[in-house]
């Protein structure tokens, strides 16, 4: 599954820095680097240096089969020529002083370390006064001391795909021969900690682990992980002539739902249970991306995750051969924008086609969503999950709608209080004391 580098944490206690951050259209303050906020940027392109190539065969992975889109290319790796072209164009097209590169897979560490040393070399060559930062997503199984030294020396943020305790993690995250991967991942995590590399976790919530939210959460607290993205997995089957089995957002029906998909009820219960512990004990100490993004929407500030934003379209993905697609979850032929060898990144990202893609997140909402009291908090979530119909038979309802609605209804009084605190230049973390005092009325 994909992740994006975490933004900063809204719930910390430094209100002066917080207000400054809000005024600049960002959202939370925390010890994490404040520049890692891709959705505050006009253009953001995730890069796939090895395409879909991976040393694992996770059951729920939506990206492994993307290799079937390139049957005539035997070696799915980015060339040095393409790398240099991408680095130069990507930096040149930015309108802000900070530039964030995100490297994704497949498994990114299947490119040798020399490739990423070359990345840094090219970034310095074309920086032209920009501040350059890098984030890389990995399953963690190939991490070594050498990799960790590099990440520490160059200040890279590492995202680790980790689905909680061993029983949960190994259910779906196994090697191509069926061997479990948890122990290898934890060896990598321990190396990151030993070399003091900044890292965060991406945890996929599926049909198996969704019923154990506290066990899930406590595991990350026990290993000292303070920055966590819990993401629901929802996939549908739809056979394509080239052998791909997963549906694009415009294909298939809910009856073809993949067995590992989390149900809306599970997702709502998971979030509510998790939130109840976090809001009472951990605000300002542990960063849960969805909770911070929800508070951002409560504040009418751009959230740090595209799924909850009003529109999208400024976060695309580039494959190993230079093909650019509208989004990491929309790597289907019908969402291909072009190729960097034939069009510039600027032309593709500001094309009418990409603008329509981004605006469609809002324009294609069904009436039920437009009339929902929590539209401001959800914005219909990700279009890739909008394959249900409303009670009136209108298409475009999000599969996870009932789960999200339960969550928003549950957290509303706490979000209201934290919003009040922010407006009065107080730390949202005071919500924990407010709860202990019985949630008294406030002005």
Q: Which of globular, elongated, flat, extended, rod-shaped describes the shape?
A: globular
> How are the strands of the biggest sheet laid out side by side?
7-6-5-4-3-2-1-8-9-10
Order of helices and strands: HEHEHEHEHHEHEHEHEEEHHHHEEHH
Radius of gyration: 21 Å
Number of helical segments with 4 or more residues: 15
Total number of beta strands = 12
Are there runs of 5+ residues with pLDDT below 50, and where? 1-40
Structural class: alpha/beta
Residue share in helices? 25-40%
Q: Biggest sheet: strands, sense, closure?
A: 10 strands, mixed
How far apart lie the N and C ends?
Answer: 43 Å
Strand coverage percent: 5-15%
Q: Mean pLDDT, nearest integer? A: 91
Please give a structural write-up.
It is a single chain. The chain is an alpha/beta fold and 443 residues long. It is 36% helix and 12% strand. The longest helix is centred in the C-terminal third of the chain and has 23 residues. It starts with 14 loop residues before the first helix and ends in a 7-residue tail after the last helix. The N terminus is likely disordered.
